[in-house]
Write a structure and sequence with these properties.
By secondary structure, the protein is mainly beta. The protein has one helix and five strands, in the order E-E-E-E-H-E.
Amino acid sequence: MNLVTGNAVNSYKSENYIWVEIDLSRSFPGELSGNGWIANTDLVNTPGLSSLAYCS
């Protein structure tokens, strides 16, 4: 995921989705470059339907 000032995830909310910006070269090394967006379900309005998970 791409971070902005303060180590916050660069995101955009639209209807019941939260769009998260990712670095394509890190997500798909050797295949893609630049930035892209993936959508995650809005957990406030639709809890339990997340397509993203925290990994440490």
